[in-house]
Amino acid sequence: MSGLRLLPLCLLALAACSDPEKVARYPIDPPTAQKVLPDRLGRAELREVTMPQYATAQEIPYQTADGALRSNPDNLWANDPAQAVTQALARQISGLTGATVLAEPWPLSSPPARRIEVRIEQMLPGSDGLLHVAGVYFVTPAGGEIGRDIVRRFDFTVPIADQEPGTIAKAQSLAVTELARRIAQLG
User: Fold this and answer.
1) What does the alpha-carbon distance between residue 39 and residue 154 come to, in Å, rounded to a whole number?
2) Is CATH 1.10.3720.10 the right assignment for the domain spanning 2-185?
3) Of 15-19, 126-130, 147-151, which gets the smallest average pLDDT?
4) For residue 66, which phi and psi values (nearest 5 degrees)?
5) Where are the domains of the chain?
6) From the CB of residue 70, how many other CB atoms can be counted at a distance below 10 Å?
7) What integer is the mean pLDDT of 72-98?
8) Is residue 11 very low, low, confident or very high in pLDDT (cuts 50, 70, 90)?
9) d(CA 100, CA 179)
10) What integer pLDDT is reported at residue 122 of this predicted model?
């Protein structure tokens, strides 16, 4: 009988630990891009961006001085990170060039001319004050033409002032803009 009396107290204590107002959600939301580059892509389908497991987790990761990746369950991404990066990257490439770049699946009746695949191998908010971004992207003809494939590696950093989740989210948004610029230039 005494165990049944403790159950409500345990449930009350557990509810107090999970205060939803303490949980903060941060978007990957780069500023609206202005057309500054020529359209080298035309109509292109962007496949969902692949990222390392730590970068696709709901909790925002950061690296500590001991090299470990840590996170806090009270600081979450506002959306699935891979989906958010894919959508933002498509918007940024389109905005920078005027091209029609849309995330898969292709929603228009006329097929795309190209397909873009991005594999992010590292998107790490390092303990050194830099967001490290590295990987590879592929641009291929959608119609199966042979010999017109483009493969480019990327490796760059974005400064981050601290390991706060809002700062990390802003740095990742800037990284998406930089990656979009590199893909749009096919460089």
Assistant:
1) 20
2) no
3) 15-19
4) -80, 0
5) 2-185
6) 12
7) 96
8) very low
9) 17
10) 97
Average pLDDT, the chain: 90
The residue with tokens 């990390």 is 168
Which of the pair, 143 or 51, is modelled with greater confidence? 51
Decide if 87 contacts 94 (C-beta within 8 A): no
Largest distance between two CA atoms of the chain = 77
Q: Is the pLDDT of residue 15 over 60?
A: no
Return the H-helix or E-strand segment holding 153.
strand 150-159
Q: In whole angstroms, what is the distance from residue 186 CA to residue 41 CA?
A: 9
What dihedral do alpha carbons 100, 104, 107, 112 form, nearest 10°? 50
Residue 77 bridge partners (DSSP): 26
Give the pairing type, strands 62-63 and 114-125.
unpaired
Over range 67-95, report the average pLDDT: 96
Instruction: Let me know: does 181 contact 175? Beta carbons within 8 Å.
Output: no
